Amino acid sequence: MDVVFLSRLQFAAATMFHFLFVPLTLGLSILVAYMETKYARTGDETYLSMTKFWGKLMLINFALGVVTGITLEFQFGTNWSRYSAYVGDIFGSILAIEATTSFFLESTLIGVWVFGWQKLSRKAHATVMWLVALAGNLSGLWILIANGWMQHPVGYVIKNGRAELDNFLAVVTNKFAILEFLHTISGAYVLSAFFVMGVSAYHLLKKNQIEFFTRSFRIALVFGLASSIFVAAIGDTHGVHVTQVQPAKLAAMESHWETSKGAPIHLFAIPDEKNERNLIEIGSIPYMLSFLGYHDINAEVKGLKDFPKDERPPVWPVFISFRGMVGLGVLFILLTVVGWFKRNRLLESPLYLKAMMFAIPLPYIAIEMGWIVAEVGRQPWIVYGVMRTSDAVSPISTPQVFASLIAFILVYGFLGAIGFYLIFKNAKKGPKLAH
Amino acid sequence: MVLETTVLQSIWFFLWGLLWAVFFITDGFDLGVGTLLPFLGKSETDRRLMINAIGPLWDGNEVWLITAGGVTFAAFPAVYAVMFSSLYTPLLFILFALIFRGVSFEFRGKIESAGWKKFWDTCIFIGSAAPAVLFGVAFANIFKGLPFDDTGYHGNLISLLNPYGILGGVLFTLLFLEHGALWLAARTVGQLQNRAASTAAKIWPVLLCVIVAFLVASWFSTHLYANYLKTPVLFIVLALAVVALIGVRVFISQKQYFKAWFASAATIISATFFCIIGLYPNLFPSSMAPGFSLTAYNSSSSQLTLTIMLVVVAIIIPMVIAYQVWAYYLFKDKLTPKDLAYEESY
Fold it and tell me: Of B81, B305, B327, which has the smallest distance from its Cβ to A108's Cβ?
């Protein structure tokens, strides 16, 4: 185990853990802002209780998202200092812009929202939550512009022994980043919608606060249905773009070894990386890969064998994660479409409610798998085609990173367990009704 | 607007210093309050009042740290790379401390159990005290210069804990404690206010002695005075710090705690700038050979990046300050036990 491997593990642990909390904040802040707006407009106390109940769950989640985000920015310096020095001119400035334009607004106003109930008018208070939601989503945009640049670097020149900014507009309008943002943000909305629907389903099954949870469920259902369809549609567009700019990632996503025209996809396969083939291929659909990658059934799709061995991503995790993500994405559309037809008789559909309750973790899995496809699929590059991950690491010692990795796992594991326990406990307890 | 690269580099050097100074005056008081928690929080009500006195603001304050870090990355990537990989262990200690502290505020009130609260109170104390000490140790070592050359960093956590580094840690902790005690005195009433005010009054002479000791030690351990000897008029910054520090004492005596807090903020800003001006143009000096030192001139981003970032900062930071001032203004009133009755309070 070397510094590169340990630092990668540490970054993976830190980001994946961070991303257990971020998506719920992104989507739930919008739903809470919507509920509070309804309250501000109508004065209906149920909407006030909804705002407070879902807001409380959002805040526990928010705290974990914020504190685990802080380490990420600093890890580029602590563990990836060669990367930081090489691309800081571009990557660093995007992170700094994120902090000044978005994170400040989000963090300042969340405090105002929590403590400002007596200080602000109803409308002003609801506006504050909209601004929190906007700032959080904007924050996501900047972070994905930064990640998008690592995936598909644009607007730079190599000068003075490093990558320097050449065209700022090209960096912020990077097609890869925009598609990645839209895909990630809509995935976050799906997750939030399923969270609200799942918790509501639990209470509806117990016939608890029926009016409250039916309303919550329906609001989340509309949000979830639209987002589930959008995330899949944008995922398709994103996939076509990946095919063009990261062909090795696409080949790994499909475990596609031989360059061929009219390439098939395999619903399932067992990749054999050593012998550069698949051991078994099940459910092959001819022409489908060419069609999905190029929207042309006869298009040629480059196989992994035509990439030098040291420029191929690990096939297994990318292939499996991609399948998991897509499969779950389809399931989310099905579940929300079914929900749409059952929306007026939720109480008479206990089986569906139960399914929705158990579906809460699924979008979490899907979104983490999506990140595995994006990040592991980019390997061996830290900046695609420009810098290798192995050249990016800090000149630090193995025991140092080993110790910090253990610390990360223990601390995050401990706090994460408590955080999820508190969310679970408060979700189960249900709302205090307004009087 | 096209500025010479060297001009941009100098502007960014002082903006970098300014961001750290603002971080110290904003997060400084909530770190101070957190450190005071076990000493001034005699009862559960007192402890809740203390936490709620910083409740709406600490999160926004901490973003100044993120921004200071982000700006180091954006404007001086080479400094960001060497500084954070060299100070790997202390930086991770700071981050873990801040993580525990941040979740403690949110978690402690969620379960009604004395043991549970006690645990998170301890986390708030350690999570506040450790960053205060470690920032002081880290910056003192930066002023002194760190042992690195082109082959990397040759120090470790123990080598940072040299006498000057420890003195820096003590200085920062006392500055934050004073700042936090004054914030509490300004925002509370009754017994808690009295305790906070008398704590501030007691810390003041100790702080004064440590500041003098730090100034003397800096003469022997650092090159901070070089710029001042070249341009003595700059000593006015130090004079400002002294005036502000005296102001703190005067306002404490007059029981004008908000004014004392502002004077304390002015002390921190001018003290930070005293050091930053002394450091200029070094950002991360090497104690092994001056040739390896990272300066505003040899470690900055490109002219284009510095220009774009300057435009962004010139537009956005005033807006940030405006809405943070609004948030502070919104929560300027004295906290009383009846404010704790609202379900959303910590």
Answer: B327
The answer to whether B84 faces chain A, any CB pair under 8 Å, is yes
Examine residue A234 and state whether it is found in any structural domain, yes or no: yes
DSSP codes of every residue in B15-37: HHHHHHHHHHHHHHHHHHHHHHH
Q: Which residues of A touch B301 (CB under 8 A)?
A: 88-89, 92-93, 164-165
pTM score: 0.93
DSSP 8-class letter at A433: P
> Rounded to an integer, what distance in angstroms lies between the CA atom of residue B80 and that of residue A314?
31
A391 secondary structure, DSSP code: G
Which residue, among B19, B29, B5, has the nearest Cα to B187 in the 3D structure?
B29
* Structural domain count, chain A: 1
pLDDT higher than threshold 80 for residue A56: yes
User: Which structural domain range is residue A202 located in?
Assistant: 3-259+302-429
Report pLDDT digits (tens) over A203-233: 999 999 999 999 999 999 999 999 999 999 9
Phi, psi of B284, deg, nearest 5: -150, 85
Task: Give the separation between CA A356 and CA A352, rounded to whole angstroms.
Answer: 6
ipTM of the shown complex: 0.91
3-state secondary structure at position A278? strand
Contact (CB, 8 A) for A404 and A75 = no
In a domain, A347, yes or no: yes
CA distance B81 to A230: 39
Closest by CA position to B29, among listed B164, B128, B123, B121: B128
Please give the pLDDT value at position A435.
45
Do the domain assignments include residue A124?
yes
In three-state secondary structure terms, A337 is: helix
Tell whether A67 is covered by a domain. yes
Q: What's the confidence (pLDDT) of residue A433?
A: 64
Q: B82: Cβ–Cβ under 8 A, 6 or more apart, which residues?
A: A81, A85, B148, B153, B284, B294
CB-based contact B55 A166, cutoff 8 Å: no
Cα–Cα distance, A398 to A1 (Å, whole number)? 8
- Report residue A324's pLDDT band, with 50, 70 and 90 as the boundaries: very high
Q: By CA distance, what is B154's nearest residue in A?
A: A396
Residue with tokens 């809470």: A32
Averaged pLDDT score across all residues of chain A: 92
